[in-house]
Amino acid sequence: MITAVVGLVAALSYGAADFLGGTASRRLGAPVATAIATATGLVIVTLVTLGSILWFGQSWSAEALLLGGVSSLAGSLAILLLYAALAIGPMSILSPLTAVLSAIVPMAWGFAHGERLGPWQLVGLALALVAVVLVGFIPGEGAVRPRPAGLALATASGVLIGVFVILLDAAPDDSFVQPVVGNRVVGVVLLGAIAGIWMLRRRARGEVAPRPDRRSLASAVGAGLTDPLANGLILYGLAIGQLTVMSVLIALYPAGTILLAAIVHKERVAPVQWIGLALALVAAGLLAVR
Predict the structure, then answer these.
(1) Residue 37's closest CA among 220, 177, 182?
(2) Measured at the alpha carbon of residue 258, what is the angle toward residues 93 and 180, in degrees to the nearest 5?
(3) What pLDDT was estimated at residue 290?
(4) For residue 280, which of 257, 262, 253, 261 has the smallest C-alpha distance?
(5) Burial bucket for residue 57 (CB in 10 Å: 0-12, 13-18, 19+)
(6) Angle, in degrees to the nearest 10, between helices 2-28 and 243-250
(7) Tens-digit pLDDT profile for residues 122-146
(8) Sign of dihedral through CA atoms 143, 148, 153, 157?
């Protein structure tokens, strides 16, 4: 039961981070907003880790930091490929495809390494995969056949997101949030460089640099707080539960984004997405059954 709840909350946290990051990007630009969020996350997880070392005597884990750093490379490349795929379209097909593959890859890894589920959990797993497709479905694209390039990019992105989850699962169970520290260190370097290049290119074209306001900065910092929270919850869920269960629950992250967009920006949630959200709750309940 705890694993199912942790997985759902982690997915909603990821979705909230995407929503806040998207809100900040409207004013700051995606490279700058992402860099601010990543730097914020690094400060938070470093302070948390230092506190655990000073107060609880935990030691630094080179393995956890290394796995976290490598996971950042996989995750960053996955996002770049995803954005490239969505730019080709259609989003209504490629977005759910990426989400489903991001669940199937670690699920297959878990089953291959001896994880087993009960009959009701297997039903829940199947329902959750359907929910992932429905929640991530973006209506209004029309009957557009995806191009091979878009399918290839979306497939590669989904596989890399799955690898990201597998790498987090490989971290020692007692490493606390240290993998997230390694993840954020590499992320700050990569995204800081990308943001710097982006700003220089804008200046070279004579474009006005984006001016942050209080709301955009707050959104970027909020994304920097919620994303490490999601990663921390994933690490906890993987430590107490199974990779197969956590992977499919994490893939429901679009739920947090669409719910916040509906509440804050009054965006319409399509009926098929509401069905997906309802199926996600049913699936989480079944996954909690032993």
Answers:
(1) 220
(2) 90
(3) 63
(4) 253
(5) exposed
(6) 30
(7) 898 899 999 988 888 777 655 567 7
(8) positive
Q: What is the pLDDT of residues 94-104, one digit of tens each?
A: 878 888 898 99
Scanning the structure block, which residue is given the tokens 């009054």? 266
Please return the burial class of 239, using the count of CB atoms within 10 Å of its CB with bins 0-12, 13-18 and 19+. middle
* Residue 76 and residue 213 in contact, taking contact as beta carbons nearer than 8 Å: no
Cα angle at 30 between 228 and 19, to 5 degrees?
55
Give 151's contacts (C-beta < 8 A, 6+ positions apart): 94, 97
Between CA 203 and CA 193 the distance in angstroms is: 15
- DSSP letter, residue 269: P
Interatomic CA distance for residues 228 and 178, integer angstroms: 11
Coil, strand or helix: which one is 89? coil
Cα separation of 283 and 6, whole Å? 14
Mean pLDDT of 110-126: 89
Q: Provide the token pair at 208.
A: 């006005």
Q: Cα separations (Å) of 48 from 134, 178, 204, 232?
A: 36, 9, 40, 11
What is the C-alpha separation between 73 and 163, in angstroms, rounded? Answer: 10
Q: By three-state DSSP, how is residue 284 classified? A: helix
288: which DSSP letter? T
Residue 144's pLDDT is: 61
- Cα–Cα distance for residue pair 180/45, rounded to 1 Å: 7
How far lies 170's CA from each of 53, 82, 126, 163, in Å?
21, 24, 25, 10
Here the tokens at position 210 are 């984006």
SS3 (DSSP) at 274 = helix
